[in-house]
Amino acid sequence: MPELPEVETIARMLRVGSTTQPPVPGRTIDGVTLRWPRHIATPGAPRFRREILGRTIRDVSRRGKYLVFPLDQGTMLIHLKMSGDLALLPTGSPVGPYDHTVFHLDGGWDLRFGDARKFGKVFLVDDPNAVLTGLGPEPLAAGFTARTLGGRLHGHARALKPLLLDQTFVAGLGNIYADEALHRARLHPLRRSNSLTPTEVQRLWRGMRGALRAGLRHNGASIDWVYRGGEYQNHFRVYQREGRPCPVCRTPVRRIVVGQRGTHYCPSCQPRRGH
Ligand SMILES: [Zn+2]
C-alpha cells in the first residue's frame, strides 16, 4: 500500500512534471471515463462526471495518504488504498487493464488512476476538510516535535505498531514505515505507548522521520503494488526481511502478526521490555 513517501512522490511528479510529462497544475479536465464507478466515493458517479467537467487543476499536494487537487472550484481528493497509482500519459497511448478511472486533460494528456484491486477512492468536495477531518498530524511537519509525539503517545495505552498505523494518531505511516521506524528507534512493536521514557520518545520521533525521509530520498518503495520509480525496497532494514540479518547486529529478523498485520523486527535491537 502506498504510504506517505510514495504518495508524496506521486504528488511531486504530477506537480512539477518531468522530462517526459508536463506539470498537471493549470490543466483543465475536459472529460472523465469511469470504468469502475465505485471509485467515486462522493458525490454519486453521475453527478461527479457532470461537476468535474471543465474544472481546472490548481495544484497537487498531499495530506496523510491522500492526494489533494485544489480546483478552480472545489477540491478533488484521491486515496490510492491498496494498489492505486496515478500516471500522466498522452491521450491515445495504450490504456492499461487496471486504468479504471481516467481524467482527460486539455493538451492531449490523460491522468490515469490505475487500481488493480479497486479499493481506491475519489472525492469531489467543496471543503477538503470534509474528507480530511480527523487525520492526525503530519509527521514531517515542523510543528510535529518529539514533545508533540510524546504527549500523544502518553494519551494512549496501546501497542506501538497499531498506534503508528492509526491515521488519527499520526497521518501517513503504513506497514513499511511503521516497521522501519520502530527498528530505527530500537523499540519492540508491542511496547505500550504510555511506557516510553523521554529518551525513547525522542528515538521514536527520529526513527519515524528518518524512515520517512529515507523513503522520500529513494522516491518511495516499489512493492506489493503497481508503482514505477521508487527503490526504497532495496534499503529496508527489517520490512519483509524475515530470517535475514539485521543490518545493525546480524540477528535474523523476526516476523510476528500484530493486529492482523505482518510485523518485522530485530529481537536483539528491539527487545521486549516494559509494558
Ligand atoms: Zn539488530
If you had to describe this structure to a student in words, what would you say it looks like?
By secondary structure, the chain is α+β, with helices and mostly antiparallel strands. The chain contains seven helices and eleven strands. A five-stranded mixed β-sheet has the order 2-9-5-4-3. The longest helix has 20 residues. Bound molecules: zinc ion. The site of zinc ion has 7 residues, from loops.
CA-atom Rg in angstroms: 20 Å
Query: Beta fraction of the residues?
Result: 15-25%
Uncertain segments = none
Mean pLDDT: 95
Order of helices and strands: HEEHEEEEEEEHHHHHEE
Give the distinct bound molecules: zinc ion
Secondary-structure content class? alpha+beta
Helix content: 25-40%
Strand order of the largest sheet: 2-9-5-4-3
Overall morphology: elongated
Describe the SSE topology.
Layout: H1 4-16, E1 29-34, E2 40-42, H2 45-52, E3 61-63, E4 66-70, E5 75-79, E6 84-90, E7 99-105, E8 109-115, E9 121-125, H3 129-132, H4 146-154, H5 160-165, H6 175-185, H7 198-217, E10 254-258, E11 261-265
Parallel strand pairs: 2-9
Antiparallel strand pairs: 1-7, 3-4, 4-5, 5-9, 6-8, 7-8, 10-11
Bound molecules: zinc ion.
List keywords for this structure.
elongated; alpha+beta; 11 strands; binds zinc ion
Gist?
By secondary structure, the protein is an alpha+beta fold.
